[in-house]
């Protein structure tokens, strides 16, 4: 919300020497967020000039310029020669002249300069050049604004261009602050300054319409039991002149508030909306057929809105209609057939209160956010429409030459504000400040609440403009806000001695730190994906698996919670490749969501925030959400070693992903074995299952080229994903960093011939089992198939390292341990030593 300070001063006493930063600081103290300060960006001298004469001079480029003589007053040098390319002004016109030394928005400094054979001693300005709008077809003629100032008058002050606006962020629950009325009230709360409510007009003082225009609300399908329109007021102003200029002060204020001038009639409705917070719509009365009915759309109805688009209507859309059909989307945008134009002579003014949910859904359904819908969906003061309608009518009489007609119409329901019970000790106990009774009641009365004593507490009726005050917690927030957040103590609770990260948290951190130290970049991603990607990457065979579907997804095309981290890494890789980063080593550690088949989740009701749930309630809540284990995944694509002089590029392959798996295993304190496997998303023959103590915990492999292409990744993509919680659970209390032996190791190799069906992992497990405790490590170093090896067999060579913790091993002891492993391999797989 942008708030021009000159406008703010009309409703609250702002100190004459208060800067925009001072005003923002005051508004921040009552809970608003500071955004920016906006001005016109002008510095003088910018004055009123009178065109004494001009001579048209055609140019060789086809353009005709005017060599003008402009009187800017004796104090500013009298008559000056100025070159101007516009042709919409006449001799005797009073215009705005920017003299040398002035600066226009941009910034655009003005200086005397030679152009088209003359020295132009200044510039005659258009509205756009002054920052008053987008109109740039010609010079700003002051007579068109109804102004006839003295020559030499300061044009900046004359046009209100010395004003500035402060911008604050208004949260959705504080829609009342989307108006000068609301912001001025909040400034008064912050500073104690006197406040003058622009909506404070007695009902009987508004000269209510006597009837004569039929208005009806027919809502047979209310949302949540709430009728679409609870109040609807229309006033009639006749004989307006839409060609009259909008006053300069109003144009300047609207421009600073972020709304461009669109003509006197529309400017007035926008001005009152900003002033009082009630959106107003004006109709060309002569284009209406019969009275107005507010109703829901019927199947198949369409409406062309003011932006020129024809919109297919939904049966939940609330419409403004006349006898001809729909003429507006209630609370969102009017229709094109009844809009106010240059031909309008009689205006029907509408001020209403519409259901917040209805307006919000309509605006989102049609992707049509507007200043009106922004206010209606947050809630408008139900007591303001009569004031707003009359305020618009008064301005149209004053500024557009109209006459207020007694005819009109109104429909409204009684405004009932339910009292809130507020126990005496509730707010001090919740906020942690020893507020006195006077401080509590004073703060609530200051924001407009009616407070009466009710037993050991108070009964509080919130003001009509505060629909967000619904319970004792929101009242507590107001007391804290008005009294000052600085009174709330800032004390961090001290943790009990000895507490810190749990073993599981420590393990997760070790794994992440180890991967980062190994050169991988952590890239957290959103946990949303599609059912197809969940099936593809979340299962080995690609079969359909249950997934959690969100009721209100951020992206309608990805409404499911992920079963795997790989889809997110693929998206991150694509985004990086599109920006020129081709060599990527990424990892992510995060939760995945694995609902069990046939189980319905989310059925438990969350208890009230002020009540601590018992163990049984917590158990039910835990059971009502799907399992969410934490996984860790890596993705590699591009080159491990970039091309350079004397070195060809070395692309990432599965071996690099296996190195990442070993990094994870070392950080977790487990041994992870790899066995060949098949997965729907991975290349056949380039996929491995990862296991800890015989339990599968993940996979590693190269993504199928077709799947890489679908993800817009042109090169080879290698991935690995592990159930990190399962890995850390298998580690248990194992010491990650073991002690080092001071005795030397004995190394030996062994080559065994086995059938092709025997995997290296199986053979390594047999050798490990048979070799016993002396075997410190085993590593596959060769896989040979060919001459010298029988058909349907292969030769696998392992490097073995033996070590004893208490002595130096002899070669005989190492050989004996090796042969023990060979014996188990022979018994289990028929392995033979290769000669």
Shape: elongated
Integer-rounded radius of gyration? 39 Å
Q: What's the CATH first level of the largest domain?
A: Alpha Beta
How does the major sheet shape up? Answer: 7 strands, mixed
**Residue-averaged pLDDT:** 91
User: What is the CATH third-level topology name of the largest domain?
Assistant: BirA Bifunctional Protein, domain 2
The helix count comes to 21
CATH superfamily of the largest domain: Bira Bifunctional Protein, Domain 2
Distance between the termini: 86 Å
Number of strands: 41
- What class do helices, strands and sheet pairing give? alpha+beta
Helix proportion: 25-40%
Strand order of the largest sheet: 27-30-31-37-36-35-34
Low-confidence stretches: none
Number of domains: 6
Question: What is the subunit arrangement here?
Answer: single chain
Question: How would you explain this protein's 3D organization?
Answer:
The protein is α+β, with helices and mostly antiparallel strands. The chain has six domains: 2-40 and 164-191, 2-Layer Sandwich (Phenylalanyl-tRNA Synthetase, Chain B, domain 1); 46-158, OB fold (Dihydrolipoamide Acetyltransferase, E2P); 203-412, Phenylalanyl-trna Synthetase, Chain B, domain 3 (Phenylalanyl-tRNA Synthetase, Chain B, domain 3, 3-Layer(bba) Sandwich), CATH 3.50.40.10; 420-487, Phenylalanyl-tRNA Synthetase, Chain B, domain 1; 503-602 and 615-731, Bira Bifunctional Protein, Domain 2 (BirA Bifunctional Protein, domain 2, 2-Layer Sandwich); 746-833, Alpha-Beta Plaits. Helix content is 26%, strand content 27%. The chain has 21 helices and 41 strands. The strands form twelve sheets. Strands 27-30-31-37-36-35-34 form a seven-stranded mixed β-sheet, sandwiched between helices. A five-stranded antiparallel β-sheet has the order 5-4-3-6-11, with no helix packed on it. A hairpin with an 8-residue loop joins strand 39 (775-784) and strand 40 (793-802). Helix 11 (437-446) crosses helix 12 and helix 13 runs antiparallel to helix 17 (654-668). The radius of gyration is 39 Å and the shape is elongated.
